[in-house]
Amino acid sequence: MTKELDIPKELKGTFSRFMRRIPAKLRNGEAVRKTTRSRFDWFSYASPTDDEAQQAFESIPPHYVVHMHTEVIVDQGRVGETSVTSLDVHDIARASATYGVKNVFVVTPLLDQQKILNKFLGFWHSDEGKKYNESRYNAVERVAPTKTLKEAISYIKEREEQEPLLIATSARQMGHPGALGYRDQGKVWCHDRPVVLIFGSGRGLSDDLIASCDYLLDPVYGMVSYNHLSVRSAVAITLDRWLGVHSRRGRRGSDAADMVDKCGD
Fold this sequence. Notes:
The chain is built from twelve helices and nine strands. The chain is α/β, with parallel strands linked by helices. The protein folds into two domains: 1-59, no CATH class; 61-243, Alpha/beta knot (3-Layer(aba) Sandwich). α1 packs across α3 and α4 packs parallel to α11. The longest helix is centred in the middle third of the chain and has 14 residues, at 111-124. The model is unreliable at 1-5, 11-27 and 250-261 (pLDDT under 50).
């Protein structure tokens, strides 16, 4: 049975049991902006048009991704550094481009890792890299190497002229005064400050780094207990849950309620 909710007048309609029957047409730009900022989970399932999706994107604060290769847990609880891998850089850049992330900062203080990263980026930031694969070039051009998290934050602060809000991520269930779920965008976006999503390598961000952040996102879970994802998979899933629009231009897959009926339940 559909749960009755106090839905804003801009979104009057009937929700299915899976809350997917929001009207496809949102009436005006102001309605789009208000709904995006207050209940992005509603908007993301409302089958917005391309124009409405663009209006929504322009109404939210800028987002950045930081991939830490330092201040991470490496073994037996020890905090240290990890190696940079080109596969992670490629895939995190592509996911970030898909969801409109401005920059991806790869943080490593190790000189040998900086050399590897700079050689990799040297090619993909060049005309040769663009000629080789323009789509990959367009994604990787947003990647920047930094030695520390502080350096990345300083760059963002200078560019946006505001102190960013830091959101840590972890596969571990941890207590944090700024705990966030994946429907809590409004709690962050209402501050109108840049948003930085921080991901770890190795066995995840250190406790001290997480404690220093403004927020901590819930771990990514499926319906079973296993949740040891590669960082590139974790970034893609997190960005989709945080910034993803799940249907566009009125096109949908089979409605979940219809699927239940077809199965005979």
